[in-house]
Amino acid sequence: MNQDIVKRLGPLPSKSKLIIFGGGYSGQKIASVGRQLGVKVLCSRRTKGSAGADFIFNADNELSNEIFEGATHVLSCIPPLLSGEDPVLSKVKTKLLNSKTLKWVGYLSTTGVYGDKKGGWVNETTCPNPQQERSIRRFSCENEWLDTKLPIQILRLPGIYGPRRSVFESLLKGTTKMIDKPGQVFSRIHVDDIAGAVLFLINLYSQGKNPSVVNISDDLPTNNLEVINFAANLAKKSLPKTIPFEIAQKTMSPMALSFWQENRKVENKLLCKKLGYSLIYPNFKSGLKNCFSKLKMN
Ligand SMILES: NC(=O)c1ccc[n+]([C@@H]2O[C@H](COP(=O)([O-])OP(=O)(O)OC[C@H]3O[C@@H](n4cnc5c(N)ncnc54)[C@H](OP(=O)(O)O)[C@@H]3O)[C@@H](O)[C@H]2O)c1
To answer: 79 C-alpha vs ligand 1 centroid, how far in Å?
Structure first.
């Protein structure tokens, strides 16, 4: 099931143990690929009984030292709290700092920290200029992680998609909105490439190739209408009329609106050219074909 990802990756050092804080959509995928590579992986969720919960991590519980015993790698996939605090650092920073076995710590962040670039490109050397409250909180958490001086790598992600989380879900429900904002593009990344890139970067880190910030995005920032039209053609679904952004924005949630207020293209040259990761889904077309094939299987 993860063969396309696994074949891009070298073996991780034997006896690797990866702790994933936040085993949600990306976390579970990374865990599943990690396990296929022979890594011992433990994934957190907030609620007992949740699928894939190897341990519970929430505001109320204390973590046992046993979880950290022999941990070589730690990844946080948990967003900042509304207060701005990083939930992982707040609770386990001392344990991480005291570890004698940790070789790599990853933090999944967002490309929202770059702010609006009016459709221009951003890369890891672009000075972050977060404008949304949540991106300001995110940038502050990035800095908190960097300040720990742990062997930390900040991984900035644009819109995540993949099976069960793509334009097909709204297309099949008939809730697709064709919002037309000429010149607006979004960058994106397929969840399989998040898993592939994270495990690829873990391996490179041990070889001394260890940039502190890496963007993980595909090759082709694209206008949303192009993406929806492509998906509708694959699924043979008809589409509603387009709505000019100026009209659509009047009924948008503040969260949805905030995404449309920023326009940037996220460059991946560091990951894909300098470090040599080969994307499984370099653009939305190949990625959506994968999502569609998974839909047909269900
Ligand atoms: N979705 C996107 O398009 C996007 C884009 C860029 C960056 N990101 C960021 O990338 C990371 C991974 O994204 P994702 O979509 O894979 O995440 P996701 O599916 O929403 O999973 C988030 C995980 O964090 C856990 N979590 C959230 N708040 C927590 C808290 N206060 N304490 C403990 N655990 C908490 C959740 O616990 P439960 O499993 O119990 O729910 C879940 O396991 C997140 O930080 C996200 O903000 C997302």
So the answer is: 6
Residue 136: HSE in the Cβ half-sphere, 13 Å Cα cutoff: 6
Q: Does the CA dihedral 63-67-72-76 come out positive or negative?
A: negative
Sequence-separated (6 or more) residues with CB below 8 Å from residue 117: 126, 262, 263, 264, 265
**pTM (2 decimals)?**
0.98
Our answer on whether the CB atom of 189 is closer than 6 Å to any ligand 1 atom is no
Q: Decide if 182 is inside a domain.
A: no
Rounding to the nearest 10 degrees, give the CA dihedral for residues 52, 58, 60, 62. 70
* 52 phi/psi in degrees, rounded to 5: 75, 15
**Is the CB of residue 50 below 6 angstroms from any atom belonging to ligand 1?**
yes
Assigned domain for 209 exists? yes
Burial class of 277 by CB neighbour count within 10 A (0 to 12, 13 to 18, 19+)? buried
Task: Tell me the pLDDT tens digit for each residue of 90-116.
Answer: 999 999 999 999 999 999 999 999 999
* CB 112 near ligand 1, within 6 Å: no
What does the pLDDT look like over 74-95, one tens digit per residue? 999 999 999 999 999 999 999 9
Q: Is the CB of 106 under 6 A from ligand 1?
A: no
Q: Which residue puts its alpha carbon closest to atom 45 of ligand 1? A: 79
Q: Is 24 in the pocket of ligand 1 (CB under 6 A)?
A: yes
Answer whether residue 227 is part of any domain. Answer: no
Q: Which residue has the tokens 């994968």?
A: 290
Q: Which atom of ligand 1 is nearest to the CA of 159?
A: 3
Residue 29 belongs to a domain with what CATH number?
Answer: 3.40.50.720
The whole-angstrom separation of Cα 250 and Cα 171 is: 22
Residue 292 falls inside a structural domain? no
Between strands 264-266 and 120-122, the pairing is parallel
Tell me the residue range of the domain where 122 lies: 3-165+188-221+265-283
